[in-house]
From TrEMBL:
Pfam families: Ig-like_KY, Transglut_core. This is Transglutaminase-like domain-containing protein. It comes from the Eukaryota. Residues 110-176, 720-786 form the Transglutaminase-like domain. Residues 1-21, 482-537, 592-615, 621-640 are annotated as: Disordered. It comes from Patella caerulea (Rayed Mediterranean limpet). InterPro entries: Ig-like_KY (IPR056564), Papain-like_cys_pep_sf (IPR038765), Transglut-like_Superfamily_Mod (IPR053041), Transglutaminase-like (IPR002931).
Length: 1324
């Protein structure tokens, strides 16, 4: 038992002075915070162990759970509490001694007598862990709720929590996370207690379907919904969102049919199968007149990842329509089942006029679903509903790899055998066509069964089915399936409008402000009972990080966003909240536009400037009677003057003019100002500021001279830069003053070249000055010095000038005050220009961000302080706009003293970077206690930006307060610090379902599947800190099957391994392979695994001549074959006559190989070449196939295909095949005997001689032979010619057993009738 130190006393966060932020929806979705619960592996494991421990009091409990681990992040604390609560039996918890009234112990124990709640316990644990948390009460759709039920009274039936993590509110329901309903039956006896991660940091747009907070602001929606709206939403289970499902047609839980029919359409963004159940609401009965109610509904897959359920009610009345889903994860060892996901109440107004049971087929889903794709077929049509007015139906399946199908015709009331003659399949090589001639009008079902010869043997599996309606067109147009959105030619969103979903007002949906005004009768018909759901409920498909495909974008464009929600959000210091990132186009009404570019004359260096008119006078703006306007904070949503207010061609001419002016030397400041501004009559204030800024950034001020310099003159200010008496800010201010612009010199602290995170600012150090300039009524900021003298690279650690590199940095021209505050802190708070100024302490704690951070529109998802304190692993996350920019990241780690290695290992190896969706994560596990610096870099990765180098975007100081025991190991020694798919992955057009770079083994094995657009070459490497590359060669194997490349890794033992994947396009790139991806394979299991034999890259599968010779696999398309027996038949097809042979090599334990050509037999029938392989013992075998065209005179047979066979069991004794001579390999075929058993050889001792047959039948096909004879010793037996090229006969072999007699098959091909060529040779 862990006890708290005697001086430990947790502080109740409510007793602090910290102000609780208002309830506002977090700017981050759950998937931004984490995508894989494995991220919390160590936190969860600790919490579960604590839950298995009893504690004497609350202090010991909270210390053990939270403080003993020294969790630094709010997220880790919240997670530990959540997992403790979902693991602890609250009915058995107890404390020692007396429990005081109002104590935390009393709160926790109160649950046992039904006086307390999970929410109150969760809130108590959070309070004493330094987390702000509140209890929310309201109504929840629990076990006994069914669609259409009404909540009565004001006694709320449930409570849950809102918790503040990193300044953002999130929703948590630890009770429902523990009480997870597996069965669809909403009855207590079906309740299964199981942890459900869905209820941790649940998105408000998802939780609102089941949880309604009576305090509307705690719904955390931009537009809260009423109780009536909540009651009317469909009943949704957590699995609905796990599958990425969302409602399209009906957002109401109660649905009315029209003439007994209704079509319910859902979308989904992850590979999912569906089924459903229908019962009467009155008695839960699912039968009607001997038929399941389910048979009165048709489910079919639609376009753009949608599925539709069309119901034709057999009678008027009320039904519950429950939808089940099955997420197809593709994970090894995961067995998926259908799980209840959503439920409607359907009120049928009448019996549907065509209400009959659907044809009795095997499945509930109609159409070409995922199973068709998995077998490598492409179906036409894809729609599950086929109509015919003449009784003829054709369905085509295009092959992407070899496959076979069978089809069955079904019709209620007709026998299967009578229908069998009405349907057929025709295999046309590259496609299979199913043809049906329907005997009479009516409704039919066509079932299609598929066979993947690579793995299915003789088994055929149901892969699709089609509903066929044979009727006149007029009858078809009245049929129930016309309710389908595809049949009605409607987009899903149009269907939503017709079915009572969201309806925009007449102003259109492009105006986000209009979307706020959806109250009253706007946005829905006055005849409707309820207003539409809030826009968030229509955007469920966008809660999962990615659109299903590009076609979905149109739906998004038609959605109304509430104000400020239609734009990306970012954190802005000085506002205290998330704010919208404004679009770049300025819209300041009082900025005049220059109509045409300025005419610019090109100059040479040192060229004389134009003469100044004698009557031109400099008039400083501060000498006039008008006073300088006071600084006014600008709101983060306010559009400020920026370069987008200037025409691009005008801007280019302004910049060019400034550059040309910088080439000339001016006698006086008056001459300079005339030349720069007034000679071109520049009156636009932004253009004035710009031309001064651009001239300052271009001119070498240290080489500038004036004829006369008087004390206090502008010339003295400019010349002062040479001696350091003045600053860029003073020069800029002076030039603005004489250009008619109000400006201000701002002094303060700046995080410059010598700054490092955690530094405290003291008077006299890190002093800097910059400017504010007044442009068309708005104070704007500018730093001409940093713009002209940008430092590239890491922080300066020396005074040597070579460490500095300079170039213009546009960021410091009119930067947003909410961004500049990260690096510039004015002495006067008012010049922060923020609504809520920050303190110096807050400035010191802000992360050190560089201009590129804002260029790439990055945001902090976690860790918003300059210094991070850690006792374990750290995961820093940034968000970027993946839809707008292709950004790649990198990082470096060093000790605070600059050292970059620990015990000879680069510290970078203790970190990994991964980008998933729009989140870049940096996972660090630092080796020892101490202070580190983390530099994060980014660059835009586009084809036109190939030369673009990484630029630093931010840096952290990390204080590792404790060292783990044992010390953490570096990540596996792979080529890059970036894990997951790399830039070349997308360049080759590759895709994968693997969402994260970390893959956890099951039974020591892991698999990565990559979809490929065309034939490519691949190679896989396994890397480890504890094994050499050579030792690991046998632990990864890859092969290409159809359009998918498979990489299988076997972990030799517990630990971490790196999987590097290389690829190329052999047509364009020859034999050089390029790095495309790398993954971390984590094995947390104690396993005994057998490595695969070491194979050279590209060994498995088709070789270069395979396609050239017109070959294709006919049986085993996967080059890795696992057998639970010791014989296998493999077939390939050829387009032209070939000479073929094969070799079998048994791989020994020491990696040596033993050839067994006698256990492989090849023969040919037409275009089908068959290899029969017998395996004498268990183990791995390499099967190498060779071929060449018959007319090839070289007699060289190159390798065309290689298999790896794993024989796991010997089920029968096997004997050597006959030796095959050259002419046998030219199209001959053996029907029997194959082998002749013998008492000699490897299995001879297993055979009793008296069981051997005295005679053996021979039946062979030998093209072009005139005569065939079998010779046993000296005995000749001529075979009879049967039909075609077949020969047969019976041979006496009894007297030859045990004598090593040669039995040969010989053929005469004409000419000398005594000349026979030997084709086969047996030894008995």
């Amino acid at each position: 038992m862990v006890k708290a130190p005697t001086n430990f006393q947790p502080i109740d966060v409510r007793k602090g002075k910290q102000q609780t932020p208002a309830p506002v929806r977090s700017r981050y979705r759950k998937f931004d915070i984490y995508r894989d619960v494995q991220q919390f592996y160590h936190v969860d494991d600790h919490a579960i162990q604590v839950a298995q421990t009893d504690h004497e009091n609350f202090v010991d409990l909270i210390f053990h759970l939270v403080y003993s681990q020294n969790y630094q992040s709010d997220l880790e604390k919240a997670r530990a509490i959540f997992r403790w609560m979902t693991s602890k039996n609250m009915y058995t918890i107890k404390f020692k001694g007396k429990v005081n009234s109002g104590s935390p112990e009393e709160v926790i124990l109160s649950f046992q007598n039904k006086q307390g709640t999970y929410a109150r316990i969760f809130e108590t644990l959070c309070r004493f862990s330094g987390l702000q948390c509140t209890v929310l009460t309201g109504f929840a759709k629990g076990l006994d709720y069914r669609p259409g039920d009404k909540f009565k009274g004001s006694e709320y039936n449930h409570s849950w929590n809102a918790i503040l993590i990193d300044g953002q509110w999130y929703l948590v329901d630890s009770h429902w996370a523990t009480r997870y309903l597996v069965s669809e039956k909403n009855q207590p006896e079906n309740l299964v207690y199981e942890y459900d991660d869905f209820y941790f940091l649940t998105d408000p747009e998802q939780l609102i379907y089941s949880h309604w907070a009576h305090k509307s602001e705690w719904q955390l929606l931009s537009r809260p919904i009423s109780l009536q709206d909540f009651e009317n939403l469909p009943l949704v289970k957590s699995y609905f969102f796990k599958c990425g499902m969302f409602f399209i047609s009906h957002h109401n839980g109660v649905v009315q049919t029209k003439k007994g029919r209704v079509a319910l359409t859902l979308g989904f963004s992850k590979p999912t199968n569906f089924t459903y159940k229908i019962v009467f609401t009155s008695n839960n009965e699912e039968m009607h007149q001997g038929q399941k109610l389910k048979s009165y509904a048709l489910q079919h897959q639609g376009k753009n990842q949608t599925t539709t359920f069309i119901f034709r009610a057999p009678k008027s009345g009320q039904y519950y329509f429950t939808i089940f889903a099955q997420l197809l994860t593709g994970e090894l060892g995961v067995k998926n089942v259908f799980t209840a996901s959503a439920e409607y109440k359907v009120i049928a107004d009448a019996t549907s006029p065509d209400a009959v049971a659907l044809p009795n087929c095997s499945d509930s889903s109609w159409g070409a679903g995922i199973a068709v794709d998995q077998i490598g077929l492409v179906a036409t049509p894809t729609d599950g509903i086929i109509t015919s007015s003449n009784g003829k139906v054709n369905i085509e399946f295009k092959k992407t790899r070899p496959a076979f199908i069978l089809s069955k015709l079904r019709k209620n009331g007709m026998r299967e055998e009578d229908l069998e003659q009405c349907i057929s399949e025709q295999d046309l090589g590259d496609r299979i066509v199913v043809t049906a001639n329907l005997p009479q009008q009516g409704e039919y079902g066509i079932e299609v069964y598929g066979n993947d010869p690579a793995k299915d043997g003789e088994t055929y599996t149901h892969i699709s089915q089609y509903y066929v309606h044979f009727a006149p067109q007029a009858e078809q147009m009245k049929a129930f399936y016309q309710e389908s959105p595809e049949r009605r030619h409607l987009s899903p969103q149009q269907q939503a409008e017709l079915e009572g979903g969201f309806k925009p007002d007449s102003a259109g949906l492009s105006n986000a402000t209009q979307a706020m005004n959806l109250g009253g009768n706007q946005g829905y018909n006055q005849d409707d009972d309820l207003p539409p759901p809030p826009p968030e409920l229509l955007q469920q498909q966008y809660l999962y990080g990615a659109l299903p495909d590009g076609s979905g974008q149109a739906v998004m464009n038609n959605l109304a966003f509430t104000q400020g929600k239609g734009q990306p959000t970012t954190y802005a210091p000085g506002t205290g909240e998330a704010v919208s990132v404004q679009q770049q186009k300025a819209n300041v009404a009082n900025i005049p536009a220059t109509s045409s570019p300025y005419k610019v004359e090109k100059r040479s260096v040192g060229q004389q400037p134009p003469a100044v008119p004698s009557n031109f006078q400099l008039v400083p703006v501060r000498n006039e009677k008008s006073s300088t306007p006071p600084p006014v904070p600008t709101s983060s949503s306010q559009v400020k003057p920026n370069l987008d207010a200037i025409d691009k061609q005008v801007l280019k001419s302004v910049d060019d003019h400034a550059i040309q002016v910088s080439k000339s030397d001016h006698n006086s400041f008056r001459d300079l100002v005339w030349d720069l501004i007034y000679s071109k009559n520049i009156t636009n204030e932004i253009e004035k500021v710009r031309v001064i800024f651009r001239w300052l950034a271009t001119k070498n001020l240290k080489e500038m001279n004036f004829d006369h310099i008087q004390a206090g003159s502008p010339e003295e200010v400019l010349m002062g830069l040479k001696t350091g008496k003045t600053t860029y800010a003073m020069v800029f201010d002076t030039m603005c003053n004489y250009a008619g612009l109000h400006s201000k010199i701002i002094s303060g602290y700046a995080k410059g070249a010598d700054y490092h995170p955690g530094m405290k600012f003291q008077p006299g150090s890190n002093q800097h000055s910059w400017n504010a300039v007044y442009i068309y009524g708005t104070w704007c900021l500018i730093d001409a010095h940093w713009a002209a003298r940008r430092i590239i690279g890491k922080q300066a650690q020396t005074n040597v000038s070579e460490e500095f590199h300079y170039q213009l940095d546009e960021y410091f021209f009119l930067p947003d005050p909410h961004q500049l505050i990260y690096t510039h802190f004015p002495d006067e708070n008012k010049w922060q220009l923020l609504e809520i100024p920050i303190t110096l302490e807050e400035f010191e704690n802000l992360p050190h961000m560089k201009p590129q951070f804002f260029k790439y529109q990055l945001e902090f998802v976690t860790h918003r302080t300059a210094v991070i304190y850690s006792r374990g692993e750290i995961n820093i996350r940034l968000r970027y706009s993946a839809q707008k920019l292709a950004v790649t990241f990198n990082f470096t780690i060093c000790f605070e003293n600059g050292e970059e290695e620990y015990r000879g290992v680069k510290l970078n190896r203790y970190g990994m970077q991964e980008s998933v969706g729009s989140i870049a994560s940096f996972r660090l596990r630092l080796p020892i206690k101490g202070s580190y610096i983390l530099y994060i870099y980014a660059k835009e990765d586009t084809p036109e930006n190939k030369e673009n180098v990484y630029a630093q975007v931010c840096e952290y100081k990390i204080v590792q307060e404790d060292s783990a025991n044992p010390a953490p190991e570096p990540f596996p020694p792979c080529s890059y610090l970036n894990w997951g798919p790399g830039p070349s992955f997308n360049r080759y057009g590759l895709t994968t379902y693997q969402q994260t770079a970390c893959i956890f083994t099951r039974d020591g094995k892991a698999e990565v599947q990559i979809k490929i657009p065309h034939q490519m070459q691949f190679m896989g490497k396994v890397k480890s800190n504890n094994h050499s590359d050579g030792d690991l060669e046998g632990y990864v194997v890859h092969r290409v099957v159809g359009n998918t490349a498979f990489f299988n890794v076997t972990a030799p033992q517990r630990g971490e391994y790196g999987l590097e994947i290389y690829a190329n396009d052999p047509v364009k790139e020859g034999t050089t392979l390029y790095h495309v991806a790398q993954y971390v394979i984590v094995c947390n299991e104690d396993v005994k695994t057998t490595p695969l034999p070491k194979l050279p890259p590209g060994y498995l599968g088709p070789q270069s001549k395979f396609t050239e010779f017109g070959l294709s696999t006919a049986s085993h398309h996967d080059p890795i074959i696992h057998l639970d027996t010791n014989t296998v038949t493999i077939q390939i097809r050829s387009e032209a006559p070939l000479r073929v042979t094969g070799n079998l090599l048994a791989v020994q334990d020491d990696s040596s190989e033993v050839e067994h050509p006698e256990f492989i037999f090849a023969h040919t029938m037409g275009s089908l070449i068959t290899f029969i392989v017998n395996l004498p013992h268990t183990g791995f075998y390499k099967l190498q196939l060779y071929a060449c065209p018959v007319n090839d005179s070289s007699q060289q047979l190159p390798g065309v295909y290689n298999y790896l066979i794993n024989c796991r069991d010997v089920k029968q004794a096997v004997f050597p095949f006959p030796k095959q001579y050259a002419q046998w390999k030219e199209g001959c075929f053996m029907y029997e005997p194959g082998v002749i058993a013998s008492t000699t050889g490897p299995n001879g001792q297993k055979i009793s001689r008296d069981r051997l047959p005295p005679q053996v039948n021979f039946r062979l096909m030998i093209p072009k032979a005139d005569a065939v004879a079998v010779v046993a010793g000296d005995d000749w037996t001529h075979l009879e010619k049967l039909q075609g090229s077949e020969w047969g006969g019976v041979i006496d072999v009894e007297k030859h057993y045990g004598k090593n007699t040669k039995i040969t098959v010989n053929a005469n091909y004409g000419g000398d009738k005594t000349s026979y060529a030997t084709l086969l040779e047996y030894t008995v």
